[in-house]
Amino acid sequence: MTSIHTNLGAIAALQTLRSVAANLTVSQQQAASGLRVAAASDNAAYWSIATTMRSDNMAISAVSDALGLGAAKLDTAYAGTAAITDILGEFKAKLVAAKEQGVDRAKIQEELSQLNAQAESIVESASFSGENLLKTKSTLPLLEEGPMTTSVVSSFVRDASGNVQVKTMDIDLKQSSMLNEGGGGGILQKQIHSVGDIGGFRGTGVNSVAHQGHERHKFTGGVTFAAGDTITFDINVDSGTHSTGNDHTLTIDKALVDAALGTTDGIVASPAQLRAVLERAFTDNGVPATAYESLFSGGGSTTHFEIGSLETSGHPGSSITISNVASSFASGAYPANFAMGLEDAPDQNHDNMYPGASISFTTAFTVSPLAEVYFDVQVGPGATTTYTINRAVVDAALGTVDGYIGSAADLAAVISQASIGSNLMAVASGNLISFSADQTVYPEAGNPAARVYVGNIQSNPPYAPDFDLAEVDITQNVRTIDQYLRGVDHMEKMAISSASQLGALQTRIEMQAEFADKLSDSIDSGVGRLVDADMNEVSTRLKALQTQQQIAVQSLSIANSNSETLMQLFR
């Protein structure tokens, strides 16, 4: 049907042309922008996700920049800490050299002063962007200071609920600070509440027991007993501070010798034979002693004989003493009063041994209100008990209010005060402190004597130097070189620990920065999958649409030419 009112062919061609033109516009926009979803109208869901992720990616980029800044701070602090660790190693080497005899300590002190100045210079210069992780400015000692953390940005996080968060890594300045202006307590400074080596008490390890009284004599030669020859002597066993012991008078003659040795010639030719003779004399006369003691000489000595207490006398002492030696061998081959060595004083002698040990007092110190010292004590058969020294104990023992312990006598009084009830005696003599059992409770000497144990010395806070690195002076007698060595070694350990922590944070930041780069790439890739146009597909579609557009134009032209044909019918 052909109509002069409606050109159906032209209408169809025009609709096709419009559709092709619209699709061509879309494809041209995709080709120009490279985006399949360029606006919310293209795909609201994908556009929203892509826009949010692009925003997050910008935040991640900012985190990467912040990580770079944090890494620079840590690199600077680590370099400074590593340099100070090397300096402390040199410091220790100089202190060791100062222990040699004849060394010029004044010259070494000059080197130590320069090393300290270099350490302080490193601390001052270890700053990046105005922040120095090796130097703090607290008016309190670091031990008393609250949290002193600084942080570096580590990550940007969006959780499942859509909430965003910036994560940080904390750095504890109390662990990295070399110098704290004001209150002190940095790695190169004294710990205000430290008790140092506790006046020499810290390393105590007394674990003392005793043994029976005994003495050794040199055998001065053999002898032949004839009828009427005798050696007589007095022997006292187990006399001591708390008792007089047992006294015995013994006689050695030919009958005793032959009975002891199973002979008939009365000859005593060796220390071993003299031991046997003395043992028979002790047994026959009920003397609580033995001639087979071997603590000094061993069992087979060819030059000495040794006697000791059996500790069966019932007396608390543990001793043995020979006196009043008289001999019939006074002429001829034998010197006057010859008695095979019994007549001579012993060359080694242990009588009435009580367990105990001594320590030397080193340096005065103060027990602050925040400091405590703990030590274990066992006296006699009782259980090991832990005792505590704190400010209250110090002041109660010394009648003071400042916790100051300035001498061996002070420390002995404080230890005694702290360990009341333990039966431990701590007695000062000059610069020494002696530990022993209370003899009014444990009067027995020798093997029955009470065991004395004092050890496991701990403190809170733990050991830390009670001097600054800048205070080390080996030309003065304030502290021993060993004390300085221990303190500097502790500083070195703390510096190494700090360097380890900084190094671990460096590694973590490097890993986080690498992850941030990968995360940013992943987000770019994910957003691209959502909104990027496939350019191969777009170019192919664009070419096809351009061809369709040309055909649609030609179709419209043909449709419009039909009306001209119709007009010819009316001419």
TrEMBL record:
Residues 4-138 form the Flagellin N-terminal domain. Keywords: Bacterial flagellum, Cell projection, Cilium, Coiled coil, Flagellum, Plasmid, Secreted. Its main location: secreted. Residues 98-125 form a coiled coil. It is found in: Secreted; Bacterial flagellum. Gene3D superfamilies: f41 fragment of flagellin, N-terminal domain. It holds the Pfam family Flagellin_C. Residues 488-570 form the Flagellin C-terminal domain. Belongs to the bacterial flagellin family. Flagellin is the subunit protein which polymerizes to form the filaments of bacterial flagella. This is Flagellin. It comes from Peteryoungia algae.
